[in-house]
Design a protein that fits this description.
The protein is of the alpha/beta class. Helix content is 39%, strand content 18%. It has a domain of 222 residues: Rossmann fold (3-Layer(aba) Sandwich), CATH 3.40.50. α1 packs across α7. The structure holds nicotinamide-adenine-dinucleotide. This is NAD(P)-binding domain-containing protein.
Amino acid sequence: MDHALKSKNILITGGAGFLGSSLARKLVALGANVSILDAMLPLYGGNLFNLDDIRDSVTYVQGDILDADLMHSLVRGKDVVYHFAGQVSYIDSKEKPFLDLDMNGKGCLTVLEAVRTEAPHARILFSSSRLVYGKILTTPVSETHPTQPLSMYGIHKLLGEKYCQYYTHTFGMDTVSLRIPNPYGPRQQMKHNKYSIVGWFVRQAMEGKAITVYGDGSQERDYLYIDDIVDAFLELTQHGKRGEVYNIGTHERVTFGDMVDAVIHEVGSGERKNIPWPEHYEKNETGNYIADTSKIEAITSWRPQVSLKEGIRRMVEYYKTNKKQYW
Ligand SMILES: NC(=O)c1ccc[n+]([C@@H]2O[C@H](COP(=O)([O-])OP(=O)(O)OC[C@H]3O[C@@H](n4cnc5c(N)ncnc54)[C@H](O)[C@@H]3O)[C@@H](O)[C@H]2O)c1
């Protein structure tokens, strides 16, 4: 049977990055007509190699989501818009709050305004973050947990969600937001450590370097493999309820130290080095995070499929083959 997204007209902002290119590949395989917009900003994850094997099957445009005229022309006639473009480093968001506001706030608003006027019936899927929750009070974390972000990035991601809900409430637009935990997998940028801690550690291990762990590494995180993230977006494109936000996550209780050990084991080199917590770090530390995913599971058949060990194995294999495209 044909997939519901076959022949649909789709735009992915930030589509040359990690999430966007991984989703694009799956959509092309399902028979969708995929357009990609990416600004290819040097420090972010945009990489044309991510699109190498689908380049002839997608329409690729280099440009900025803040270019309203371009956004209007790109969303015209689209059935689905995945809005992934943005500033992705919570560390940079502290040093460059206005840049973060522009990209994650105004950028999202520009996309929504373009859809409102040019494609008001399109479904918009927004990539939000677990960082909207801030300090974790109880685990597992459900969507009703208080949102008190500890970073400018988290504040502006929450702003993006609120914009989406405003457009649903006021104009009846069809928006859905996903709160993504720590993502990892092939096609993630490996240039620096400001984003994607798993990616950076894989690189450190492949270079035989020490991987530094703050404290005893007992903080729990929810590391979600890219294929599971893509599948969640596809399921919620079809079944997500208008104006809602959904958590996704693994159910695996994995500590930071477990993740580092898995990386070292799969790479076969590198070593773990525990160091004291940096001063003032607690201002950003959310505490243990594990998502309650019962909301998405109640309306879809989505379930995470890839264990941390298996995901890291696939990731290491990818970078061993394609290292020169990412270093
Ligand atoms: N837990 C989290 O905090 C979390 C985790 C993963 C992803 N996310 C969100 O998912 C989305 C995708 O993340 P990713 O991991 O694929 O990052 P990525 O850096 O690999 O991809 C983002 C892409 O957006 C592009 N981009 C940035 N600003 C742009 C602009 N103004 N106009 C056009 N393109 C622009 C970049 O060039 C890059 O290719 C982001 O919105 C990110 O905030 C959040």
